[in-house]
Amino acid sequence: MPAPREPLALVPRPLKLARRFGSFALGPGTAVRIAPGAESAASLLRELLTPATGFPLPAAPDGEIILALDPALGGTGEEGYGLTVAPDAVLLRAARPAGLLHGVQTLRQLLPAEALLPGAVRAERWELPCVEITDRPLLPRRGFMIDVARHFQPVSWLRRLVDLLALHKLNVLQLHLTDDQGWRMPVPALPRLTEIGGVRAETLGDGVPHGGAYSTAELRGLIAYAGARGVEIVPEIEVPGHTRAAIAAYPHLGNDPARTLPVWTRWGVCDTVLGMGEESLDFVRTVLDEVMDVFPSRHVHVGGDECPSTEWHHSPSALDRVRTERLPGPDALRGWFLGQVGRHLAAHGRVPFGWSENGTDLPPGFTVLPWRDTDHGLAAARRGHRVITSAYRTSYLDYPQHPGPGEPPGQPGLLTLRQVYEADPVPPGWEPEAARQVVGRQAALWSEYAPTPAHLEYLAFPRLTALAERAWSPRRDWDDFGARLTRHRLRLDALGVRGADRFSDTPPTGEETG
Q: Which residue numbers delimit the Beta-hexosaminidase bacterial type N-terminal domain (predicted)?
């Protein structure tokens, strides 16, 4: 009897998938056989499926669902897995624990969409279609940056966001924790950062104060929650620009220590930047030491872009620094300062990340996120930097996704679902040596125009789904993706994802190219 031909609508698309005849019945008596090293995957499986199905999925030596680490699958890398669903058993194997976590998400997608919603539907059994899957990602870093500095978001929603990233096999959530308009990261040695820098008087003249900061316990809890789902939380602390909130809290950090400024209440690029004296370096080291204590991530993003040098041209301490370090002029202070920051992180075993304006402006040792133009990534790769592609024209989700008056406010412009999908994670035409330096792709969602979780989710989906697809799967097929996405929307609907109602009932067409 031939295998069924109906599509399974898995997102992202597995590397190899073969549909087999029959199904596996998941029921109240189904148990899990847990091999050594697979305990975290078993915990995640229960955490995701038990509330939705009502089935306890206990551990048993003869369990029908088998989770195992298998060194023989080394060819699937750190995050790949093999999944076999047969009528009498389910076997999920991976060389590394991260692969098992991704395989659990695939198992979850094999269930009917209504089985994703905790407690909504009760059934005596749920059917898993029989399949053979071998899967691994195209890129090791597949990320999403969320701006919680300009509009603070509760940690409960960040946990929900982690779950949505994990469902799509995205493995990085970057938290933009500080900016001119707010400081959200607690630093016990510098309490005014959140007490003063965490609150602005208003936003664009609306007269409504806005503020918020995370506690250390909240951040640690989020990190643990994400880690159990295979998602790395990368902190971002902006220096030496985008620091108006820090200078509002501690005026001596600025280029005019006698000046007192409020937290910035407007959008755009503020020309208030850190001074170049030892006190600023000590400040950044203190902050980063706390960041490294709280966040176990090997990667720390230090911003680095949009740093006007206007104040440095008139600051005695900055000009002294230019002379002392024998720099060509004040404009070189940004690179010098980031070099100091990068060395401090490297000395503690961390890897500095930074936004690049042109691909050649970050010190050696930095992983580069070129946001202005994809070609800047090529320049960075040729200099030996690792590159995470993140050009705003294909990755910034604060741009509207649909034309027309019904779209919520956003940046001037348009970024459609198809434009996100069609962007190659490794740009074509790069020489092989440069292409090998591309280690990831990342979307960004700045929150100037998106103050609420509902608005942020609307902007993120379904475009983030397209980015996840292309960063994981080497296959590029817009029609196939559109067909799967139309069915995948049922999962997003079941999970209550804002924005899922904007999916079409038919696959997207070429008219969405904008």
A: 9-135
